[in-house]
Amino acid sequence: MMYYGNFGGMHLIWWFVWMIMLFWIFATPYDIPGQRKRKDTPLNMLQKRFAAGEITTEEYHEKKKILETDLAN
């Protein structure tokens, strides 16, 4: 036999609370505080600087060569 006393609707409210929390955790497009983010590698940072026009082509190739030799070692 089911009990439908004064707190009978409380079960339904908890289902809504859990659904809202799950939606917030998995479906929100913005960053959640404390979430780990992938750090940029030095090569990615160099490519961004080159794309932004902060360094010339010669500087890019020189620094890329240095980074690639460092990563190989």
Q: What does the radius of gyration come to?
A: 26 Å
Strand segment tally: 0
Strand content: under 5%
Spans of 5+ residues with little confidence (pLDDT < 50)?
Answer: none
Number of helices: 3
Helix proportion of residues, in percent? 55-70%
Helix-strand topology string = HHH
- Broad structural category: mainly alpha
For the record, give the distance between the C-alpha atoms at the N and C termini, rounded to a whole number: 72 Å
InterPro entries: SHOCT
Transmembrane segments: 12-30
Keywords: Membrane, Transmembrane, Transmembrane helix
Domain SHOCT: 42-67
Task: Offer a few descriptive terms.
73 residues; mainly alpha
Structural write-up:
With 73 residues, this protein is mainly α. The chain has helices at 10-27, 42-52, 57-72. The radius of gyration is 26 Å and the shape is rod-shaped. The mean pLDDT is 80. Keywords: Membrane, Transmembrane, Transmembrane helix. The chain crosses the membrane at residues 12-30. This is SHOCT domain-containing protein. It holds the Pfam family SHOCT. Residues 42-67 form the SHOCT domain.
Question: Can you summarize this structure?
Answer:
The protein has 73 residues and is mostly helical. The protein has helices at 10-27, 42-52, 57-72.
Task: Write the SSE topology.
Elements: H1 10-27, H2 42-52, H3 57-72
